[in-house]
Amino acid sequence: MNMSFDEWLPVIFMGIMGLGMLAYVVLDGYDLGVGMLLRSAEDEQKDTMIASIGPFWDANETWLVLGVGILLTCFPLAHGLILGAMYLPVALMLVGLILRGVAFDFRVKARIEHKGAWNNTFFAGSLIASLSQGWMLGFYILGLEHSPRAYIFSAVIAVCLSAGYCLLGASWLIMKTDGPLQLRAVHWARRALWVTAVGVAAISLITPWASPRIFDKWFALPYVVMLIPIPLATAALFGVIERSLRRLPVRLELGNEYGAGVPFFSTIGIFVLAFYGLAYSLFPYIVGDRMTIWQAASSPESLKFILVGALIVLPAIIGYTVFSYRVFSGKARDLTYL
Prior knowledge:
The protein is an all-alpha fold. The chain is about 80% helix and about 0% strand. Strands 1-2 form a two-stranded antiparallel ribbon. It is globular. It starts with a helix and ends in an 11-residue tail after the last helix.
């Protein structure tokens, strides 16, 4: 069935919102991971870890603002329902992000005896934000259902998403650092890898059982045949990461950086595939099986007006993101304060 441009508008904005959320999870995910790993590092390594995310971490959160902004302005009914049902974890996430911002700025100015407290605050803020996001993801997948099953699943996903962020963060440090910290990052990545795998498996197994509609989209013919490559590719990427992390210590000790980026970009691939599978399962609903994107959308006139702004803002965000990563490419340098 052919759809008019007005009917396509909610689909377009759902795609923009999905892009914003995926970019946030990947980009802010690795710096949240670095924050959670900070407590496991030696004192002399912590400045290097902070330096590795210093040029990026604040801008990475722009993608969260974009995604939530689209939800608020383009899907106001869904915004009220989702954020109303998840008021507490949203509030906790904001507290965590605020703690991170305050700690990041104050640790560089604090006296030596106070620096440890700000490092712990940065760690705590990263952990609170990560656990809150994982809880929200699990709760959203089960359609904002208030039940013991939903709470247990959300708690599992909270831990596993945090592990996924730690995997991203450790893989980022493998690329951006060298010496003992780089080798330590390989160890951190190996510890986080299989907890992340548990989370991906849990989402993959539970999501089709969230509703009969989603189950049919995954297991009815011919869809089951076309979707088999997703779990196979995901398993292959986990295998690539595990193999790479086993081989990297020997190479790095010899000064060979070949393959140092493989764990990071393979982890991004896993997140992208998981996001695609989740989006496929939920579409066209934006809240469980209760509200479609067309039911939740603003009027076509409003969406057309917002689209003009989005076509200006989105390329600007992508442009400065690419520019900043190009300018600050290469190994992180030790922090120096003037």
